[in-house]
Amino acid sequence: LSTCVRDVNPNTSTNLVQMVTLPSMLQAPLQALLRPAMWIPGIKNIHSHFVTWQSDKPPTEVLAALVTAIKQIKSSDDTGSFYDIHKINKDKHFLRVFCFTRAEWLDVVEIEIKEDSIEAKSFSSGFLPLFIPFAFILNCVFFWVPFFDNKLNKARLELIKHYTDLAISEQKINPLNEPPVLQNRDQQNTNTQPNTAHLEEVEVHQDGAIMGNATDSPYGGEPIMQNNEQLNTKTEPHTTPFGEGDTHQEGAIMGNVTESPYIGAEKDIPEIIT
What we know:
Blueprint: E1 2-8, E2 15-21, H1 22-34, E3 48-54, H2 59-76, E4 82-89, E5 94-100, E6 106-113, E7 118-124, H3 135-141, H4 152-163, E8 169-170, E9 202-206, E10 209-215, E11 224-225, E12 236-239, E13 245-248
Antiparallel strand pairs: 1-2, 3-7, 3-8, 4-5, 5-6, 6-7, 9-10, 10-11, 12-13
Helix pairs in contact: 1-3, 2-4
Keywords: Membrane, Transmembrane, Transmembrane helix
Transmembrane segments: 127-148
């Protein structure tokens, strides 16, 4: 048994007769649902094609134009393929087409129209043609067998795009999605926030420089800076009138306070007020 479809091609003087057997028509929905040829990553790439299009028209208008293009392809295809529009979802702007080759292998075209892009894919659904009884079950058994589509799926999507009246362009997408690279290594340490852990020494960053080690204060509040021997910052020497060297850093107490020979009074050591 077979289903005979006769289309008249106005560009030629002969009629194009396309025939699809009844087993193929009955098994096609199950085969398209299972699609065993698409189960293994990597192998599926040799018999499928995915593309992203872009159009400035609303999704409803794009869907109508694609349906019209499929109907035109049915009457002008010279490869012996048969196109069956299986599903049109106007709410989700989705289109599915069954494409039977001359040997009745089933290829599936699915197009989803979004607000900013058009996702189109065409793929071979199984290793065996569907005129074989119970082919959809056998294809699930032979899902691991690799086969080549001779770039027919890619050509089919290009043909649909060609017959669409709307201006559709292919959208370029960077698959790597790599982050930008900093020009200067010093920029990697900028704009960092203090990192404080409970009763553990942590590094405190400020404006790209390491300010030293800090611990949580037992009285609460901000971390207390430890003495000068534990600081890893770059300090500048300061010479006192007695020849002793001391290190100072702006905004921080770096060591013990000594009696000043000019003031005559000993400076008070800062205390923590609870």
